[in-house]
Design goal:
FAD-bd_FR_type; iron-sulfur; alpha/beta; 19 strands; six-stranded antiparallel β-sheet
Amino acid sequence: MSKFHSLKIKNLERITEESIAISFDIPEHLKTDFAFKSGQYITLKTIINGNEIRRDYSLCSSPKSGEIKVAVKEVEDGTFSAYANKQLKIGDVLDVATPKGHFVFEPNDSKTKHIAAFAAGSGITPVLSIIKCALEEEVKSNVVLVYGNKKTKDTMFLDELLQLQHQYSDRFAIQFVFSQTQEDDAIFGRIEKSTVNLVVKNKYKHLDIDAFYLCGPEGMINTVKGVLEEHNVNKDTIHYELFKASKPTVISTEGVASGNTKVTIILDDETTDFEMPQKQTILEAALDKDIDAPYSCQGGICSSCIARITEGEAKMRQNNILTDGELAEGLILTCQAQPTTEKITVDYDDV
């Protein structure tokens, strides 16, 4: 399980009017702990107005750089995002969990690959890390990015992406999409079916895409996935990560009993036993027992609370992350999982 470390802010960089990049100073003795794969994220924790706030942010740097860097876009009524954009200063200290996440790209320079990425808004952050890694560590691979925003001024990492395009002009292509302004060489509108077809069936049809990486709102991801599947793209080559669900969580109680379950929680090599109502999620019950279980969004979008069931069964309210294979291996999102058996053992360490 990822552990928190108090890290000092090394640098702050304004990248749009509403977003800021934060890099951290990593002490020498923690550099191994903070080694990461491109596409992974870190959890930031701090106290704001007397309340503990946790938020997940994808790393936008490349693993080769050794830099721990995230970007935070201020959102309406966002507690941490407003704090980060308006109050954080160089030298401030935040609690930072070590990197984790399954939305990853692992380079293999012995192969030539073609990669296509679709990102919208702040969904560019893990995708940028993946692009950098592919360009730096797979010297024969090609990358195509489709990147949607409202306007150029809202486009996170615009200058950095253009610099990468210039540096790797023979291997990296960008198709910008703007929904509120018309720009030269850009598509006007949103990332939709015709945008995906442009990449896979027209403009880049000469590339046999080996892997697709999607990050953005749920609607965009579902659209892109749907079109790719219509073209018989192997589902195993489509990787995605949500940063925002388009619909509120619908809590289903079907198949969940109204009794109690005896729970065993394994966390940081410690075992805790207690009884919980089956109407609660495992995470809710663990937090009620003052167990410091990992979590962030509590909405089934991030994977901070992931654990493995080694005994018993549970039903998840919703699942936007885990694959069928991972579910078959016993992995669950504890913020969504309600026990359905008299006994259940949940291991946070075995993931």
